[in-house]
Write a structure and sequence with these properties.
single chain, binds coenzyme A, globular, 29% strand, 412 residues, 6-stranded mixed beta sheet, 10-stranded mixed beta sheet, alpha+beta, 12 helices
Length: 412
């Protein structure tokens, strides 16, 4: 039995939680395919057999030789104002129906969070089952971009000087470059990790394309497999000409099939396509990534350069220290000429306003730091998030942010 972060764990009824091993592949694939999507089997194989990821990212619960539950933890990196926050994402979660409701995913989430902390992750990102992950410390935080229908289909022939083709392994550097350019339009970003950029080329659930012009890659797009519709996701282009050519080529690929685009506001593709897309439905239902911040002190500490720069740009009165309370604990940073001092953690502080501070419930820390509402928007919605007496200052410290997260699984 190979060791997980803390070695195999004995669970109730003789079940054992341990790291996955090559011999588990077939059973994990069968479990994922039966509880999720058949394409999950291939996704898991791509991850687990990649030497840059490997079996240790997956844990299983076994009953004897039988794999009855599984979860995997992916390495991510969330970027905010020049700061890189190592992060984790739990994916490919499933329990055999015969073993549901026995706390196996609860045990696997605990394994994943321990492994995530051991890998230095400061937060966890999650797409997933509505409400369920709130049981494990996640809170809804970042709006998932809207999908917009193409209202006018390009009628001109596909740009003759460019070629659309499936991406190959030797394109991944060019794709990553285009994605990095596109992500410059956002405050909070998460790129595909280099190994994941490779896995995307081998998925059964969709395809990744590149547009080549004069032997250069000038656009890329990821399109999930769907006979009834074409959805352009993660579109990134060099220039507006490439954007128009990409759309025309994709339309020519699937004549008559309706086309939609995942909104990526502020990017070159967005500017080029804006006039072609139907407006976002104002009644669209909420759809958000979850974030989990187990240790607010560590994240605030990492974000001191960002918070210090916001403080520096604030014109009003600034107290001697910045106090943020999550009610059961609170965090203080001294205001110094050079920026903010190291975070000091204290105990419960039920009324942070009395200390000139702000309050934020623990499950909303992620939304406050990375979400599109900021302190002002959250305080309007949530009685347990408020700026305290230095209202303008805390609005400036925690502004609404735009975000662009690239994930292995598309949230559509
Ligand atoms: C959802 C699923 C992963 C839960 O697995 P499980 O091993 O039965 O979960 P656990 O027994 O550890 O449940 C943990 C807690 O969540 C609760 N719970 C289980 N499913 C839930 C759901 N869909 N919504 C809310 N709570 C749920 C349990 O009651 C339990 O609560 P408790 O610890 O307070 O008693 C499993 O049912 C499954 O494989 N579903 C299909 C695949 C899937 O949806 N995968 C996720 C893709 S991201």
């Amino acid at each position: 039995v190979s060791a997980s972060a803390d070695g195999p764990q004995q669970l109730a009824d003789g079940l054992v939680l341990r790291s996955a091993e090559p011999g588990d592949l077939g059973q994990i694939q069968a479990l994922l395919a039966s509880r999720g999507d058949p394409a999950d089997a291939r996704d898991f194989e791509l991850m687990a057999t990649d030497p840059d990821a490997g079996w240790e990212l997956c844990a299983v619960v076994v009953d004897g030789d039988r794999v009855v539950s599984t979860a995997s933890l992916l390495d991510e990196q969330v970027r905010l104002g020049g700061v890189e926050l190592p992060a984790g994402q739990v994916e490919l979660v499933a329990t055999d129906p015969d073993y549901e409701g026995r706390g196996l995913v609860r045990a696997l989430m605990s394994w994943a969070h321990q492994r995530s902390a051991a890998r230095g992750h400061l937060l966890q990102v999650m797409i997933g089952i509505p409400y369920f992950y709130r049981l494990f410390g996640y809170g809804y935080a970042i709006t998932i971009p809207a999908v917009r229908e193409l209202s006018t289909r390009p009628d001109r022939p596909a740009a003759p000087d460019s070629v659309l083709r499936l991406a190959r392994l030797d394109d991944v550097g060019a794709i990553a470059g285009l994605q990095a350019d596109a992500q410059r339009a956002f405050d909070v970003t998460m790129p595909h990790s280099p190994p994941r950029q490779r896995w995307l080329l081998g998925q059964d659930s969709g395809a990744c394309y590149v547009l080549e012009r004069a032997e250069e890659i000038v656009a890329t797009v990821r399109i999930p497999n769907d006979d009834e519709a074409v959805l352009l996701t993660e579109a990134a282009v060099r220039d507006e000409v490439a954007a128009h050519a990409l759309l025309a080529h994709v339309a020519a690929l699937r004549p008559g099939v309706p086309i939609s685009v995942v909104d990526r506001p502020g990017t070159v593709a967005d500017a080029a396509w804006r006039g072609w897309l139907a407006p976002v439905d104002p009644d669209v239902e909420a759809s958000q990534y979850y974030l989990r911040v187990d240790d607010p002190a560590a994240v605030l500490d990492a974000l001191r350069p960002v918070l210090g720069a916001r403080l520096h740009g604030f014109a009003g009165d600034i107290p001697d220290e910045i106090v943020v309370s999550t009610f059961r604990a609170h965090y203080r940073m001294a205001v110094q000429a050079s920026g903010l001092g190291a975070v000091q953690t204290g105990g419960a502080l039920q009324a942070p306003g009395t200390a000139g501070g702000a309050g934020v419930a623990p499950d909303y820390v992620g939304a406050l730091l990375c979400g599109d509402l900021g302190m002002g928007g959250l305080a309007r919605l949530r009685p347990d998030v408020y700026p305290g007496p230095h209202r303008e200052l805390f609005h400036a410290l925690f502004p609404p942010l735009t975000a662009d997260l690239l994930t292995f699984y598309l949230p559509y």
